[in-house]
């Protein structure tokens, strides 16, 4: 027999004896209460976007008034989507978010494509975007007013993402407590930026808001990109649904956490943009890639707070996304190694570690605004498919228990707007969105070759069931049903 065939049974037997001794089974435990859930959403949403995306929103909307309107409408639209996910999270009590809801409502092919783009496109792109923002805010203050070296920014970004991956590999509790602390810090950062702007506005500094709704620079092809930047800054409201099986009393805490956190975020975002425009002219804002550095008076404190804010969003992203791959592998739609859990730490260690190289590769090769447009097409396409699936499921199964039910008009509005923005983005930025669309479609033949019916040579199966890696990482399959 081979080395792994001999060692793996011994490894599993040893693990079983340890678990019996303590009367425990290896599975993901429910450790996320209401406060961590609210912190998880706010911490995932409020990241780098609100400090970097204002430039993109203004650049593509063309005026101060329209940009504020885009921020408000993006928040309301995100709230509609979050309420749809609150219904889905209480209807289907399994983790996995987008993937699970598409599997339950639309079938295995869309669900597999979600896993495909989540692993190869969305997660590496989103995480590298957040990491680059963290690196920029950490490095730029030391080189101001000169530009910071790009290589140094990327090095610090890699260190940041490595730290977050290590925390999430080590302990769910540690990752959850880290998220609460970082959420409090980033809320403090927003308040520090908002207060001087509101004080200046109260003193009559309103010249930047005069003629705020000029539409001379507005073009139809750029407007979807303005909403992309706004929606991207609100992105993250769905991360709690990725970890449903780890939320205490999810039928109560998921809707409550989503509503409380989204109302808070919308209020903070609108106020901080008003503060930006109070102290900065539109031309000054367009000249800065890191708006908070030049908008606040506490120049030595703000960069650190904003960098920690980005780190919090990064922690939320890395905490939630591997659970999508974990659930997909547990269902048989993704390689089995991703469904393994560490025998002592009870974390989805393989899913975390196997994502890490792709994140670093995307981080090294990417540019921050290209990354937003590149990831947004697939990300919002699948969000639209999820809410479309919600409408289809309601029609097909009207008597299915739904502890929380969103008004139908909100679900329809959100779905239509998402499909409209996704479709129009192909015209606005055909290169990046076209590449994103093409990469998504490459998952179709992979599905039929490996999932629908395995048509590859038998020797290739070892790639999808790596026993050596399982032994090295000390991971096994989940031993208890958690949904």
From TrEMBL:
Protein location: Membrane
Keyword set, alphabetical order: Membrane, Transmembrane, Transmembrane helix
Topology of the protein relative to the lipid bilayer: Multi-pass membrane protein
Coiled coil regions, renumbered to chain: none
Cellular component GO terms held in the UniProt record: membrane
Membrane-spanning residues: 32-53, 65-88, 152-173, 180-202, 222-242, 254-278, 290-314, 349-371, 377-395, 407-427, 433-451
GO molecular function ontology, one term from the record: L-amino acid transmembrane transporter activity
InterPro entries cross-referenced by the UniProt entry: AA/rel_permease1 (IPR002293), AminoAcid_Transporter (IPR050598)
PANTHER family: AMINO ACID TRANSPORTER, CYSTINE_GLUTAMATE TRANSPORTER
Protein name: Cystine/glutamate transporter-like
Protein's organism: Echeneis naucrates (Live sharksucker)
Gene behind the chain: LOC115047218
């Amino acid at each position: 027999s081979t080395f792994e065939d001999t060692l793996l049974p011994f490894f599993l037997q040893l693990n079983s004896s340890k678990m019996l001794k303590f009367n425990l089974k290896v599975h993901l435990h429910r450790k996320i209460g209401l406060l961590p859930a609210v912190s998880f959403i706010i911490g995932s949403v409020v990241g780098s976007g609100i400090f970097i995306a204002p430039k993109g929103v203004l650049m593509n909307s063309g005026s101060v008034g329209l940009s504020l309107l885009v921020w408000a409408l993006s928040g309301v639209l995100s709230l509609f989507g979050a309420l749809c996910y609150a219904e889905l999270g209480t209807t289907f009590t399994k983790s996995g978010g987008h993937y699970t809801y598409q599997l339950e409502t639309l079938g295995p092919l869309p669900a597999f494509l979600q896993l495909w783009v989540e692993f190869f496109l969305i997660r590496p792109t989103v995480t590298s975007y957040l990491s680059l923002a963290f690196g920029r805010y950490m490095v730029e203050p030391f080189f101001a007013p000169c530009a910071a070296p790009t290589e140094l920014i990327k090095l610090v970004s890699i260190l940041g993402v490595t730290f977050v991956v290590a925390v999430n590999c080590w302990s769910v509790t540690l990752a959850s407590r880290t998220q609460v602390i970082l959420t409090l810090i980033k809320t403090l950062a927003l308040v520090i930026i908002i207060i001087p702007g509101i004080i200046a506005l109260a003193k009559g500094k309103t010249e930047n808001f005069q003629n705020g709704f000029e539409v001379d620079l507005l073009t139809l092809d750029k407007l979807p990109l303005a909403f992309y930047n706004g929606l991207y800054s609100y992105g993250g409201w769905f991360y709690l649904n990725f970890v449903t099986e780890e939320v205490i009393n999810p039928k109560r805490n998921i809707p409550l956490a989503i509503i409380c956190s989204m109302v808070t975020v919308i209020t903070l975002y609108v106020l901080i943009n008003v503060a930006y425009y109070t102290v900065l002219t539109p031309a000054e804002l367009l000249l800065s890639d890191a708006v908070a550095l030049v908008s606040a008076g506490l120049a030595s404190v703000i960069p650190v707070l904003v960098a920690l804010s980005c780190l919090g969003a990064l922690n939320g992203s890395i905490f939630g996304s591997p659970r999508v791959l974990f659930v997909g592998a547990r269902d048989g739609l993704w390689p089995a190694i991703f469904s393994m859990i560490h025998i002592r730490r009870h974390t989805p260690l393989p899913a975390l570690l196997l994502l890490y190289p792709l994140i670093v590769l995307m981080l090294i090769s990417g540019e921050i605004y290209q990354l937003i447009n590149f990831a947004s097409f697939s990300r919002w396409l699948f969000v639209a498919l999820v809410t479309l699936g919600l409408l289809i499921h309601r029609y097909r199964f009207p008597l299915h228990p739904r502890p929380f039910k969103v008004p139908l008009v909100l679900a329809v509005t959100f779905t239509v707007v998402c499909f409209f923005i996704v479709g129009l983005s192909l015209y606005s930025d055909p290169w990046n969105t076209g590449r994103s669309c093409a990469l998504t479609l490459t998952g179709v033949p992979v599905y039929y070759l490996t999932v629908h019916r395995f048509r590859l040579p038998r020797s290739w199966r070892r790639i999808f069931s790596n026993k050596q890696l399982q032994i090295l990482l000390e991971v096994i399959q989940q031993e208890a049903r958690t949904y």
